[in-house]
Write the structure tokens for this entry.
Amino acid sequence: MGCKIVKFVNEYRDPELGKKLLERIRQRSKKPIRLMEFCGGHTVAIFKHGIRQLLPANIRMLSGPGCPVCVTASADLDRAIAMAKLPGVIITSFGDMVRVPGSHASLQQAKAGGADIRIVYSAQDALAIARDNPAKSVIFIGIGFETTAPTIAASILQAEQEKIKNYYVLSLHKLCPPIMKAILDMGEVKLSGIICPGHVSSIIGARPYEFIPEEYGIACVISGFEPVDILLTIARLVDQIEADKPQVEIAYRRGVRPEGNTQAIRLMETVFETGEADWRGIGPVPKSGLQLKERYERYDAARKFPIDPGPVREPKGCVCGDILRGTSTPLECRLFRRTCTPEHPVGPCMVSAEGTCATYYNYGRD
Ligand code: SF4
């Protein structure tokens, strides 16, 4: 079984296959092409395997807003930090989030100041902390895209089933297709094609992207994360663009079905409804986030602990917002590699392992 898995993964790392795909891209690609990879996982894979440098000069790659930690607005982070300072509250969060500088401090600094903040690997871990600490209010900071939302929905249903009354979720979830639309509507970046996220698409499927070729004439291919996956995706995007026939294609058949994961979608829709979300560098975008339905409002940290953390102060000199919209690269930030490093991050794009700045820092060759 183990050997089969290794063989399966190796296929997608096969240098010979990669060379053939590159050759195909070089031969077929004639027009100037601008592609955006939406997902931070793709940004890491593209840099790690040096794919940008291998592509012909007419193909330009941009990174998009697909890192959940990075797109969390400072105002929302400040709200979480203010909640952490309330008496009797335990904040639970994914690891990267605690290092992101807020307007005045990070969650990590709040922890050093005495707040009870615990790093968890899943919403189930947060629920276990609630179960073990019935006298405390346990708030889980729910970040992420459609990939994580179903598991967080499941934790809320489980809390209800077990009658756990001290578990709350601060829902900062974001949705991919609406932010893609918002970025395209802003018109700041002119794209010929989009490398659509693999993990998100394993949940939502291919259909939610159909408006992109139909309304904007932009090619879309859903990609996996191995080098051959990404080269195959770029080859298919090139084919669509050169033929002037944009559509949504799946180049990640082993992970994505056109209809997505209907069970996970159902779970998400049971607990959440779409609502406005605040995106770093973009601002509020209608229907681009998930809020708890009224039926589950007793688990909603935002309703249980209404807090105004005061005015937002963005990190001085940080251009994360521009980077998330694809209008700047880390190389255009004067703090990059100087005052801002993974050890001392100024903005979230340097904190998160999937952040564009951290990726340029770790794997950048220019
Ligand atoms: Fe912000 Fe640092 Fe990235 Fe500059 S290098 S945009 S300061 S995170």
